[in-house]
Amino acid sequence: MLDSPSHTDAFVKLESALNNVISYLKSNFRTARLWLQYIDYTDTLQLFIRTEHSSNWLLHLEAGHVQYAKSARLYLQMMRALPVTHPWLYEQFAVHGCHAV
């Protein structure tokens, strides 16, 4: 029942309204902007931790790496090219989950 058009439309409308409120808060209130930035960082950290614990290589590439912003573009380029450049290593990461410590 959750896949029905009315539920999907409702979720889209709710997400749009929430994004509007967030944009308003970020643009008009410094403290709100700080807290929303904190929430974004903690969400990124939780995603990264879940990714590493589950040994999910593709999710690892999607998780934001805020600390490595300067080299993230190069890192992602190289890691996404692994299936072509180093297929064995890609298989170890993506299939066997060997990238997690």
Note the total helix count. 6
Number of strands: 0
Biggest β-sheet, characterized? none
In the residues, how many domains can be counted? 1
What is the strand content?
under 5%
Give, in order, the helices and strands: HHHHHH
Shape verdict:
elongated
Structural class: mainly alpha
Q: What is the CA–CA distance across the termini?
A: 40 Å
The low-confidence runs, each spanning 5 or more residues with pLDDT under 50, are none
What value does the Rg take, in angstroms?
18 Å
What is the helix content? over 70%
Mean model confidence by pLDDT? 82
Structure description:
With 101 residues, the chain is an all-alpha fold. The chain has one domain. Helices cover 75% and strands 0% of the residues. The protein is elongated. It starts with a helix and ends in a 7-residue tail after the last helix.
Keywords:
mainly alpha; 101 residues; single chain
Helix/strand layout:
Elements: H1 5-28, H2 30-54, H3 57-62, H4 72-80, H5 82-85, H6 87-94
In short:
The chain is an all-alpha fold and 101 residues long. The protein contains six helices and no strands. The chain has one domain.
